[in-house]
Every structure is written in structure tokens, then in C-alpha cells.
């Protein structure tokens, strides 16, 4: 099958198929007499595997490891489980980071009047070095003698 057919069958774009081939995740495609790439059902199955791993958030190195284990019939399932659970830990850490970012933005948005004034705590915070701004000082009262 040609790259368009492989793309449709696997759910992976032709551009990504070429990229995965370049990265060595799939073997170089055979070529037809006219020079077009020709893919087998095995190639399509491998592309589906890659797409599913990507859908689960695996990066290229993780996919490479999973593909090696998938191809190794003498593998131990404990290795696969370890990879999966390590990935779960990274995903959960990322979720905590995202939740923290969302909480910070929600707090900043709650502090913003959202009116016609130019003052905006969201922009003020983005302009800082990452440390929360100090609360405003209370106004100073002038002594009656100084008046």
C-alpha cells in the first residue's frame, strides 16, 4: 500500500510516517519501481502501535523502548509494566504542575477587576521574576504638625 493508504489505515499522517521512518521507529519503506514508498500490513500495525503510545503521552525514547520490547518475544512483562508505571508517575507530576498553573492563573484572574482600567494583576505578575508580589503597604498618615 502507498503512504496515503498506510496513513488512512493507521491514523498517522503521511508527514508523521516519513518522520517516524527518519527517526528509525519504522523500517525504511520498500520502494515501488516508480519510487513511491510501499508499506506492509506489519508497517501499519507498527504505526498504530506508535500512534497509541503517542496518544498515551509517551515521548520518542519511551516509544522506542516499547517497540523494542514489543518486538522481543523473550521480554519480561515486568519491564513493560515498569515503563508504564514510570510514565504514569511523570504524567501525574505533570498534572500537578498543570493544576498549580491553573490555580495561579485563577487566583490572578480573581484579583483582576476586568474593567476599563489599565491596572492588571495578571500582567503585573507575568512581569515579575516569579516571586509573588508583596502586598501593598497601608497608606501613611501624615502627622498634623507636618501639614
Automatic annotation (TrEMBL):
One GO CC term, this protein: cytoplasm
KW Iron (keyword) present: no
Record carries keyword Transport: no
One Pfam family linked to the record: MerR_1
Keywords: Coiled coil, Cytoplasm, DNA-binding, Transcription, Transcription regulation
Region called Disordered, residue ranges: 121-147
Protein name stated in the entry: Cu(I)-responsive transcriptional regulator
Annotated organism of origin: Rubellimicrobium mesophilum DSM 19309
Lineage of origin: Bacteria, Pseudomonadati, Pseudomonadota, Alphaproteobacteria, Rhodobacterales
Amino acid at each position: 500500500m502507498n503512504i496515503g493508504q498506510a496513513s488512512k489505515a493507521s491514523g498517522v499522517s503521511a508527514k508523521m510516517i516519513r518522520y517516524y521512518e527518519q527517526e528509525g521507529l519504522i523500517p525504511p519503506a520498500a520502494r515501488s519501481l516508480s519510487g513511491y514508498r510501499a508499506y506492509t500490513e506489519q508497517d501499519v500495525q507498527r504505526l498504530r502501535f506508535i500512534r497509541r503510545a503517542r496518544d498515551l503521552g509517551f515521548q520518542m525514547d519511551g516509544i522506542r523502548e516499547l517497540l523494542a520490547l514489543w518486538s522481543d518475544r523473550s521480554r519480561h512483562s515486568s519491564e513493560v509494566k515498569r515503563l508504564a508505571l514510570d510514565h504514569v508517575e511523570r504524567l501525574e507530576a505533570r498534572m500537578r504542575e498543570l493544576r498549580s498553573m491553573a490555580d495561579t492563573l485563577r487566583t490572578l484572574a480573581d484579583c483582576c477587576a476586568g474593567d476599563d482600567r489599565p491596572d492588571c494583576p495578571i500582567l503585573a505578575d507575568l512581569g515579575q521574576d516569579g516571586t509573588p508580589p508583596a502586598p501593598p503597604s497601608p497608606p501613611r498618615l501624615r502627622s498634623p504638625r507636618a501639614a
